[in-house]
């Protein structure tokens, strides 16, 4: 089975990355009760025997010894990376996976791209190669960064160029967090435009995420959880935003934690079909092939449903139908575009859980009848992927 490497750059990249790794470990722990290092774990984690020498030797099959994330943590400030290294996830990273500086890029794209890019190029290439050498079939680099700050936008897109030069055959999927209108970083619009030029030219697939959309989704979930209306009791363990009791904190206290969980969930869902069994398995190769007909049309609008499950809903078909409708509503999208005012050129539905193909067919027909997929721009492609683990549905489309 193919492997992926996560490259998290800047404060936002590392904070989102932290949520992603936390959720990934929880997801595997929930599925993998026997503690066996299996193919699904192999996708994002190495199994290392740390007793042999300090560095650790890979143990390809068998019991889990010590899991190491296939990741590179890069930030030109130390704070967030140090926090990660002192937190509960410290054991899945080691010093070989880190590149940090102390000054930061001062919210300046050019400092990240030009200054730190050339200063750290050799180190970045070296560490990327080391990470790649631990994979027997490296399929994809996932870059996570923000478009508003200097390191994420500048050094993040510099790394994209490096990846294209060094690993031209490996996919580059970029998760880019776009600043909200009220962002306090005054240079964020400039950084975003400069970084977008690089994304246009060097990424295989971009998943744009808007902070405003994440904030709206989290507020909606909080409202639902606290409304206390009869029939709206939410199953706490079903929340998309849940980790380390995240939702219990007030939104104002640490807003990014809950928002970042949504992004972490998105990445897990995107790769679930490639990691877990399913009747219609679809890997990243198929996503790029089916959703990116022209190299530069590679921005995918993503949406996520359910955001939570009501405790007393016992009518799965209706809930499933609602989820299909939600997947095409702008309230569940991670970017504030209105699909009703655009047209879908291609669309992928990734369904998780025990869903019958007949249910999928019925819903697709229903949405077709409602002209959700109506297009005036050549043939429309709909891609389906299913995996058995957990019922989350993610929808990616280009509008
Ligand atoms: N969703 C989300 N957005 C974040 C997070 N941290 C920062 N941001 C957003 O990212 C932008 C700022 O970028 P940062 O990632 O902090 O900057 P950086 O890449 O570390 O770059 P420098 O600090 O300039 O070196 C702003 O738009 C913030 O709103 C986070 O944890 N989650
Ligand atoms: Mg920073």
Automatic annotation (TrEMBL):
It comes from the Eukaryota. Keywords: Cytoplasm, Cytoskeleton, GTP-binding, Microtubule, Nucleotide-binding. Residues 61-278 form the Tubulin/FtsZ GTPase domain. GO terms for molecular function: GTP binding. This is Tubulin epsilon chain isoform X3. The keyword ATP-binding does not apply. It holds the Pfam family Tubulin. It comes from Phascolarctos cinereus (Koala).
